Amino acid sequence: MVNLKGTLPTLILEALMDEPCHGYRIAQTIKERSRGVLDFKEGTLYPALHKLENEGMIESYDSVEKGRTRRYYRITGAGRTMLAKDREHWRELSQAVTMILGEA
Amino acid sequence: MFELHSWLEQATRHLAKDSAAQVHAEIREHYESARETAIAGGATSEDADRQALNALGDARAANCQYRRVLLTSAEARMLREGNWEAKAVCSSGWLKRLAIGMPIVMVAAATVLFLAGRAAFARDLLIGGVGMSLLIAAPLLPINTPRRGLIFRCAKWITVVGAMVLMFGPNSAKWSWLLISCLWPLAWTEWTRASIRRKLPVKSWPRHLYL
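Above: the input entities. Below: the structure tokens describing the complete assembly.
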């Protein structure tokens, strides 16, 4: 299990790239895509979602599914721009770390 | 369910009513989904409850994070009560007239004192008068963007601290305890408003949040 402190907002944006999701689906997507390596306490997912929404990176709407009202989140244009920047930053960082560790 | 209720109670401590209701709804929805998945995977009802609750993690940690992004009860009260300084001044007619008249009198007195040759005292009065007029005129100024609000707040604090320093002169350091006590309520209000500004999208800011 890896602590993903600080990277959760980026992972949320990535999980929302394909389609709008509700909170539980977002948590499962992150866990499934990392094959269980990235794990986090799900109670901390929603504060991160609220923060992203306050910053205009995502927006939410209510939808009824199987008779139950669920809150869905979708990525905004600003969120896509932010995600592209985060991806580039991560690529540079991981290349740099790989270069150092590769030499060791 | 009792455990979930107590988790929610802890996670929503000191949050405003609306924020707490929002947290209750989203966590209950999440919990139900996690529970259904666990039961579909073959878990008993008790196991499903336990797994769903464990997945949520520590309620106190969640509370800390929620308080950073959602309005607390103190912040919601401040939003409801609005601009208390302006309300206090406008609550009585004579106080309102005094607040508007004071800077005019101070600037006029500064001019008279300057002509009478008492330049140092005149300067202090002029700065005080200009500073006061800036604060009183604030609601009338077109401060309606975050950038203008920031400029106004910087000007306000420079004026307030500058006026205090001018008032006490070289003894400012000695009287710093008095300055800090006087400015504490203002600083606390400013701090709370800054926190609210971080939590609310700009389009939902009421007028007094800019000032």
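Note for the figure: Chain B has ten helices and no strands.
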